[in-house]
């Protein structure tokens, strides 16, 4: 089916006279509540879908204007900051990729081991200045910036020492930092039968002090990775 990324300024009711079909819409592995439609063999997507891909849409009079809000980062990157594992996300400063997630057992003195997960990350500095996560987007509360989510929506506890080590490390322009974050289930959780997390979030503050000298190129620089798909 040929895709035409044209955004008609019409409602579904306005095109009811033509043969239309609704399609479920998935952007980089994430399902949207909005639908795409097929009208006379041509497929149309809503403006909200383009926004999730880093495209701003404005309407003035009878003119629809589209403008990309994200920087292009190569063949393996997208302007949208949500997608799958092994996909690189670029927000104008940081290139972030989740390379793998593996089950682990965390020792707990005086009790059985605790089940957990190790999330392996790759973060590159895409700016022209030496930066740390602390100085550009992660602020003074690094423990709240990395979130591992279970299928029921509950989150797991991150090892604070892992976060602090990565948070304070300086990364030169073009440099890469690889690190592992460990997350644990609550004490007393059986080792067998724990659900595999399905989402990993990197929550980044879009506001950076002017003296740092860098800016994000997307409205929301945070990263949302679906762990049940791989690019």
From TrEMBL:
Assigned keywords, A-Z: Signal
Source taxon at top rank: Bacteria
Signal peptide as annotated in the record: 1-18
Protein name: DUF4352 domain-containing protein
């Amino acid at each position: 089916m040929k895709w035409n990324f044209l955004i008609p300024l019409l409602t579904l009711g306005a095109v009811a006279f033509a043969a239309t079909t609704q399609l479920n819409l998935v952007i980089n592995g994430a399902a949207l509540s909005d639908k795409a439609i097929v009208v006379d063999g041509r497929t149309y997507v809503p403006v909200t879908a383009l926004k999730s891909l880093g495209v701003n849409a404005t309407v003035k009079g009878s003119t629809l204007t589209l403008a990309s809000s994200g920087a292009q980062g190569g063949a393996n990157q997208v302007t949208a900051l949500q997608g799958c594992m092994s996909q690189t996300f670029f927000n104008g400063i940081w290139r972030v990729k989740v390379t793998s997630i593996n089950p682990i057992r965390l020792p707990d003195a005086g009790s059985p081991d605790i089940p957990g997960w190790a999330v392996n990350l790759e973060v590159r500095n895409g700016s022209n200045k030496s930066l740390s996560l602390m100085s550009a987007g992660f602020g003074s509360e690094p423990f709240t910036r990395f979130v591992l989510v279970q299928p029921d929506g509950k989150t797991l506890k991150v090892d604070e020492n892992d976060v602090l080590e990565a948070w304070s490390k300086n990364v030169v322009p073009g440099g890469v930092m690889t690190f592992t974050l460990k997350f644990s289930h609550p004490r007393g959780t059986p080792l067998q039968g724990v659900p595999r997390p399905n989402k990993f979030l990197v929550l980044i503050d879009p506001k950076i002090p002017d003296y740092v000298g860098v800016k994000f190129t997307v409205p929301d620089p945070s990263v949302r990775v679906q762990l049940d798909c791989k690019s």
